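pinging the channel bc i need a second pair of eyes. not urgent but kinda urgent?? the chain im working w is below, pasted from the shared doc
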Amino acid sequence: MLKEERFAHILDSLKKRESVYINELVDELQVSDDTIRRDLGEMDEKGLITKVRGGAIPRSGIPLDYGDRALLTSVAKTQMAQKAVPFLKSGQTVFIDGGTSNMAIAQQVPRDMELTIFTNSFPIVEVLREHPKIDLHFIGGRVAGKARVTQGLETLSKIASIRTDWLILGVSNIHLEFGVTVPIYEESLVKKEMVVRAKSTLAIVDTEKLNTAASFKVCDVDDLDVLVFENDLPMEKIERYRSSNVNIVQ
């Protein structure tokens, strides 16, 4: 069997099963264990899958560049944001992490809601800077241009001095076994520090992010308090997350 045919089989299997294991692929493709390991390694390097211990899982289709991700903003994302905002109450202090999903939440914050908001996201500052009742603070640091956020030691130091009621966490990959992960190491450090400093954490998750993983871990699923899903997401995909200590909203 040609390598391209093996790749196609692996990708098709991931669409159907959401995870593949080396021993299963050895039987299905009638090739050696070493061949499958090399295939998975190459596919991971090409960005086609995420290689994990013993096999592979899908890789999120979310692009890294904020401008490209903004093009993916949809009615579904707005609907999820509308379901997330009621968890926020006037008088609270909130971290809002970067990302287009979080921008959708920022756009839905009522004009009469009084909040103190800390964010490291330039686009979210633009959304909220003229909000009449928000005390808005930008967390400075080294600029990550593609994501349009700040990160690095200065950012981490500032986050470490803050305690919030909520964190609105930007999620690019989420998986029950591997938790919340991101493709950039410095991004994972910022998000991890925000999780530690917030009393409660909320994230909205669309189809492209679900059951995928990247290289750098932020937290376990059980570290989240609220997960907001798309309206039309199949219940079988959501039910498995109910076994964790998370408030599921659909």
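so Residues 111 and 131 are 6 Å apart (CA to CA). and The longest helix spans residues 3-17. — does that match what u expected or am i reading it wrong
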